[in-house]
Amino acid sequence: MFGLDKILNGGKLHDTNGLTILAGNSNPELVKEIADLLGKAPGDVLAGRFPEGEIQVQIRENIRGRDVFILQSICTSPNDYLMELLILIDAARRASAKRITAVLPFFGYARQDRKDRPRVPITAKLVANLITTAGAHRVLTMDLHAGQIQGFFDIPVDHLYSINMLGDHMRRKNLQNVVVVSTDVGGIRMARAYASFLNSSFAILDKRRESATQTHVMNIIGDVKGKNVMIVDDMVSTGGSLVEAVHTLKEAGALEVYAVIVHPILAGNAAEKIRDSELSELIVTNSIPLAPESRIQKIKQVSVAPLLADAMLRIHRNESVSSLFSQVRVEA
Fold first, then answer.
1. pTM for the whole structure
2. What is the pLDDT of residue 9?
3. Quick check: 15 pLDDT over 70?
4. Pick among 3.40.30.10, 3.30.2420.10, 3.20.80.10, 3.40.50.2020: CATH of 4-161+305-325
5. Residue 207 designated active-site
6. Which of 25, 73, 183, 312 has minimal CB crowding within 10 Å?
7. Residues 275-289: pLDDT tens digits?
8. Which parts of the chain are beta strand (E)?
């Protein structure tokens, strides 16, 4: 793949004249990795607080006529970081940026993407409206909770998948007799894509959702006995459902159980649950920074900076982003 291969081999892509990187406070380590790969220092931004807690933003360099990429994960403190993003977009628009791309490694509020009960909001659509109204011209994001969220925006959306990077990580383990397991029916497409990537079979966990944070595994659709299992999902929050799924799979005769989950929310004592569980390893990306208590031996982080840097460069050059999916397409 153009660009990405060069980045992974330690090269830098310097054709970035006119490109400016701005960022909020949500994921400074990822921002630094992306900036280093592109050979661009992040722009000088003040993103602080007024004494009473209101967010204060100032872009302290000239961005008139620039192609501006604003990096922010809506995570950890999602309300604060969403407001930072919106205010940064507004500031860039008023500073006469030529084009503003909101780069969202993790799109928060994505779980409320439909009316599945009476009198509930579609918050993902609300956030999409806010980002558009603030002045973004396009959005670059990764592994959305639901694909239809792309349609919530009235501006172009480039939706990336981390499957090539996470799949490569698992492939290097040289596991034999692997079965990929989807945590629910909605994740079948992702499970099928990983199964194709690893040339393995796949199975499905039939779950009953009891609340927003609790589920109960009812059945396993497929054969896991005597096999090494790889659970795939887009996010892990409290860890309760994951730990129960691992226990159920082990009871059904699975050998080692790994989990490949893109976005590590890991709220509360999730890391402690994972540490004490039968899970062999949890592989996540750095779309969300790991808290100190989550930096445990069982949790491994794979950087998606090369993927995002490559996509940003392609957008800046008005080149195809879809070619990044030449190896595996999740929609297939």
1. 0.91
2. 53
3. no
4. 3.40.50.2020
5. yes
6. 25
7. 999 999 999 999 999
8. 19-23, 45-49, 55-59, 67-71, 99-104, 138-142, 157-160, 178-182, 201-209, 215-221, 228-236, 257-264, 281-285, 299-302
